[in-house]
Amino acid sequence: MIMNLTDAQSDHSFFNVVIETPRGSRSKFSYDEKTGNFLLKKFLPAGTSFPTDVGFIPHTRSGDGDPLDVFVLMEGIGFPGCIIKCRVIGMLEVEQESGYKSYRNDRVLAIPTVSHEYDGIREITDLGEEVNEIVQFCRYYNEMEGKRFSVTKMLNSHDAIEIIKKNYITSEHL
Question: Which tens digits make up the pLDDT trace of 101-155?
Fold first, then answer.
């Protein structure tokens, strides 16, 4: 079970991110809250891999019922279960549709606090083409699952942090 990390996050400009799937991987891993294990969920087609490390912010909930998704940009590569203290640089406000059901399933973009290569990146707009690569990957990934994926808005770091705070689950709801 992922421990309650909110005590270590008294400064809400930084958040702990649990990595599920490392950058460059064709294997999609998911954390199973019931068992506390990381499970292999699926393989991506040949020639396709995750453009960044992908994880989640513990004790949050997104519109799909899972924790908030985070794309972590860094010079290194994490591993499933690795916890990285990150600063948020923005968020992709996302509308997903599966069948007849439509829901929000936002994607946070973050940089590790120890990163040197990405230290100068403060806002999502500083990324340039890397944002488009993430959006295109997300569209393709969702299309493979028969889901529609559309970015409705790009949010700056301040607005993203406010949304993250609103999506925290208090300890009595855990």
Answer: 999 999 999 999 999 999 999 999 999 999 999 999 999 999 999 999 999 999 9
CB 31 within 8 A of CB 55: no
Name the pTM for this structure.
0.91
Give pLDDT, residue 75: 97
Asked whether the beta carbons of 43 and 82 are under 8 A apart, the reply is no
Residue 73 is classified by DSSP as P
Could you tell me the residue ranges of all domains in the chain?
Answer: 6-91+104-125+155-168
Residue pair 21/69 in contact (Cβ under 8 Å)? The answer is no
6-91+104-125+155-168 homologous superfamily: Inorganic pyrophosphatase (3.90.80.10)
Q: Where are the beta strands (DSSP E) in 62-173?
A: 69-72, 83-98, 101-104, 107-112, 147-155
